Amino acid sequence: MTTTRDTPAAAPEPPPPSFTRTIERQLVHRAAVSEVFVTDLLPFDGTRYLAGAQLPLAHGYYGDHPRRPAGYDFLLLLEAARQASTAAGHQGLGIPMDCAFLVNSWSIRLDGGTPPPVGARPGELHLRGDGRRVQARGGRLRGAVFDVDLGMAGRPVGRVHIDTSVTSGEDYHKLRFLQRGSTPPLTEQLRGRLRSRPADAAAVGRANPVNVVLGEPAHTGEETSAQVEPRYDNSALFDHTYDHVPAMVLCEAARQLAHLGGVPVGTAVTGCQARFLRFAELDSALVATGRPGVNPGEAAPDAYHVTFRQDGADIARIDLTFERTATTGARPDPAQTTDRKARS
């Protein structure tokens, strides 16, 4: 007699996500409803989830780029994936609402080597994700990892991977004090303070100077360096109060440094791999140094590698890939160019 084991039936696919209204801003750790892009979250089959996000046609930060025809910025797609994963962490993985997600690393890769185009109507981004809790010995929650496939109009757009540590709000503040030996300052206390002159907005691919996050660059051989100097009154980058420079700002700084280092400002990022090693403190100089990757036959770099250092230690390492172009990218003339993670 042969005995067969019944295989559990797969969970049915949920309906397509809705794009009629945003989900609660607290679920995605945002203060402003206008900065919430996720419109629906549908957990299914254990750790998996579907989500929808409406991508704006115009945005003061994510849309401030000279590329034509316009495409959706990689950081907007990454932010949509971060929001969906954060909400799924709370609703699907049972992570308490008072917990902070500390980004250890994340990556995004766009399919086809180019960003999805901006159309006549707001973009409807479909996100299919899978999340899992990371447990420490004894069963204590240590973190969460997410893999998210992105799609628009029935076509794949790209893939995102996010690796986070998770800590309660109380433990977070204890950790920050223990690492520093003091209470860190807050972004709301530092508005209007800059350590150096900002880089030229046009040179970093921005029309609005408030979106510039670097000081004036210095060039040494193939390397370009600049201090990270974000405007803390930029409500898109600093939607709420921080006690450090967040991961998204470091990725923006890496992109801007690449433009100062020779990547044409009209060239879009199509891939990003970032590791965050320590908190980027607000009250100490943070310097980004970058160099181009190898690109045989191209007139300008299509890859750029950036290291962030503060007080003698590496803070983060970010590698960017750009859409391939034969456009000549002359590096701007300096004489003319004016212990742990990043928290999401």
From TrEMBL:
Signal peptide: none
Residue span of region Disordered: 325-344
Record-level Gene Ontology MF annotations: transferase activity
Domain of life according to the entry: Bacteria
Record-annotated A-factor biosynthesis hotdog domain positions: 27-165, 203-322
Record InterPro entries: AfsA-like, AfsA_hotdog_dom
NCBIfam families reported for this sequence: ScbA_BarX_GamBu
Entry protein name: A-factor biosynthesis hotdog domain-containing protein
Organism: Allostreptomyces psammosilenae
